[in-house]
Design goal:
The structure holds two protein chains of two kinds.
Chain A: E1 13-19, E2 22-28, H1 30-39, H2 46-53, H3 58-65, H4 77-83, H5 91-94, H6 96-107, H7 123-133, H8 136-149, H9 153-168
Antiparallel strand pairs in A: 1-2
Helix pairs in contact in A: 2-6, 3-8, 8-9
Chain B: H1 6-21, E1 37-46, H2 59-74, E2 83-86, H3 92-100, H4 106-110, E3 116-119, E4 125-129, E5 135-142, H5 146-163, E6 168-169, E7 173-174, E8 186-193, H6 195-199, H7 203-212, E9 215-219, E10 231-236, H8 244-272, H9 274-290, H10 296-311, H11 320-329, H12 332-339, H13 345-360
Antiparallel strand pairs in B: 1-5, 1-8, 2-3, 3-4, 4-5, 6-7, 8-10, 9-10
Helix pairs in contact in B: 3-12, 9-10, 10-11
The chains are: A mainly alpha, B alpha+beta.
The complex binds zinc ion (2 copies).
């Protein structure tokens, strides 16, 4: 579905607006939604949600995310930000450090307490498989993002330098 | 339709015509609080472990998913007698027909690739295959009855979870294509008819309060994005960090308050503005009984007033279930199914008026 305002970009934000007792559904792309959210105040929590989907660490974060890709399905974190959908269930592990704060923003929690299926996928095996696929560089990038989130800018600068060094050496 | 084998299209037509003859579960107006609550719905989103989500899957993966789910469903005790339809076998009117009956989403009708739908007997359960998630299962009950809807869907889900490898983690629960559905994968929705809150201009206040508590409201019916008929659907937004029963209790709590507000507004209207109220209701009844051309927006507005009149005992001769049925039978695809042919908008307006007159024209 394309954005209702610009008609060019895929809509990833869906909201209901009320004007004079009439309700309208709006399907917006991120950019148009951000513009819209400024006029809509914060009553839908939309600004929060968008802040979670993008702009978490501005420029630096984008750099840290470069190349972050789900090894199981090939979806990149950039893809996710653009389309608002993950590629497969493994994406939850591949993008864990980004998704956990996002889930917290959306739901106020990142711990499931509801029912479980009879057939449970073997989590321990999966976690290990994913862990071995994360390179030191990726790990540093994750740490950088966390530091920015916690506003620990000194630490972030240090991590950033380390990342640059590694990148120079051509490690991935 | 073109490429479909004739015996398949014949079967589909038969199956859909059977649906046309019965009243959708959610329109029966038999459940609790059915003067204000039209229906209760619980939807669960489920995916197959490690298989790309529908939007990210290739053709092969999509086909495989559909087959795997179809196999599990056809072996299921509860779902054995269901109708199974591939979206690529349906024409535009068929798809719209299923959307109007609330058996599937509008999105499910858009791109047919590897999409399918399972509809149980009496239309209580429907399962969309390869919508946003691999499975979107829903149960609809008439009236204010979320707990019963949950009981039914919970059993089906548990039984399917023994046959299908659902994507699940202890920490994050059921893993869904969009993180907004992760955790329980559950969305509970209640459809309300709130004419008195709209007439007394209190609806904005009520909806703003709901939004603050992280519930979403959608309008229902109406063409395009405009809501009509004073129908509102309230759903939970949070699906992670609360268990299913808690989510249901939270929705119930908020719905009870809205019911109370609507009842207060109805009392205020009958006590302070009785003449205005009766005028609007009798005018609506007059238009519905005598119009020869009526569009779907006006029909919904008028039926909403008629329903309010019935709820308040002002209209005594027309029963609520008949009014409910008219809401759906007068929708564009339903009219075309009843007539058995394509109709343009003008033709539909004429047929719509005739259908309404034939059902309520001669009553009191
Ligand atoms: Zn846009
Ligand atoms: Zn993935």
């Amino acid at each position: 579905m394309l954005c209702d305002i610009c008609g060019k970009v895929v809509a990833t934000v869906h909201l209901t607006e009320i004007i004079d007792d009439q309700m309208a559904e709006l399907h917006l792309c991120e950019n148009c939604a951000r513009a819209k959210s400024m006029e809509m105040e914060q009553q839908f929590g939309l600004a929060d949600l968008l802040a979670g989907l993008s702009n978490m660490g501005g420029q630096v974060e984008t750099e840290g995310m470069a190349g972050l890709k789900c090894p199981a399905c090939g979806l990149t974190y950039e893809n996710f930000k653009k389309i608002g959908r993950l590629g497969c269930s493994e994406c939850y592990w591949s993008f864990k450090s980004y998704l956990n704060p996002l889930l917290k923003k959306i739901h106020g929690s990142n711990q499931h307490i509801g029912k479980s299926p009879i057939n449970k996928p073997q989590e321990s095996i999966r976690l290990q498989a994913i862990k071995t696929k994360i390179s030191p560089l990726q790990e540093l990038r994750n740490q950088l993002r966390l530091a920015i989130q916690k506003e620990e800018f000194e630490k972030a600068a240090e991590l950033r330098d380390k990342i640059k060094e590694l990148e120079k050496k051509g490690e991935t | 339709m073109g490429s479909i084998r004739p015996e398949v299209s014949g079967l589909i037509e038969m199956q859909l015509n059977d649906l046309l003859k019965q009243t959708s579960e959610w329109l029966k107006s038999s459940g609790p609080n059915s003067e204000i609550v039209i229906s209760s719905r619980i939807r669960l989103a489920r995916n197959l472990d490690k298989v790309p989500f529908p939007h990210w899957a290739n053709k092969k993966q999509g086909e495989w998913t559909t087959e795997m789910i179809y196999k599990a469903v056809s072996e299921d005790e509860y779902l054995k007698k269901s109708i199974y339809l591939k979206l690529s076998d349906l024409d535009a009117i068929d798809k719209q027909f299923l959307v109007e009956r609330h058996l599937m989403s509008h999105e499910h009708a858009l791109k047919p690739d590897n999409k399918a739908i399972v509809i149980s007997e009496e239309e209580i359960v429907s399962i969309m295959i390869n919508e946003e998630d691999h499975l979107r299962m829903q149960v609809m009950k008439s009236g204010f009855d979320l707990s019963e809807a949950w009981n039914i869907i919970n059993n089906i889900d548990t039984s399917l979870s023994a046959k299908l490898p659902f994507a699940f983690s202890k920490e994050l629960g059921y893993l869904t294509a969009c993180p907004t559905n992760a955790g329980t994968g559950m969305r509970g929705s209640v459809m309300l008819h709130l004419p008195a809150l709209v007439m007394t201009k209190q609806i904005n206040k009520v909806l703003a309060a709901i939004a603050k508590l992280s519930f979403t409201t959608r309008g229902l019916y109406g063409e395009g994005t405009q809501a009509a008929g004073n129908f509102f659907q309230i759903s939970n937004q949070v699906s992670l960090g609360q268990n299913e029963e808690e989510i249901i209790e939270n929705i119930k709590g908020i719905i009870r308050q809205i019911i109370e507000q609507e009842n207060m507004a109805r009392n205020a209207l009958t006590q302070n503005n009785r003449q205005i109220l009766e005028d609007r209701i009798y005018r609506a009844s007059g238009i519905l009984k005598s119009a020869y051309i009526i569009n779907s927006a006006e029909t919904i507005e008028m039926l909403s007033m008629l329903r309010l009149g019935q709820d308040l005992g002002i209209i005594k001769s027309i029963d609520r279930r008949l009014i409910n049925e008219l809401f759906i039978l007068t929708q564009p695809a339903h009219l075309q199914k009843i007539e058995g042919k394509r109709l343009n908008a003008q033709e539909r307006d004429v047929k719509r008026a005739a259908l309404i007159r034939s059902r309520i024209g001669n009553i009191g």
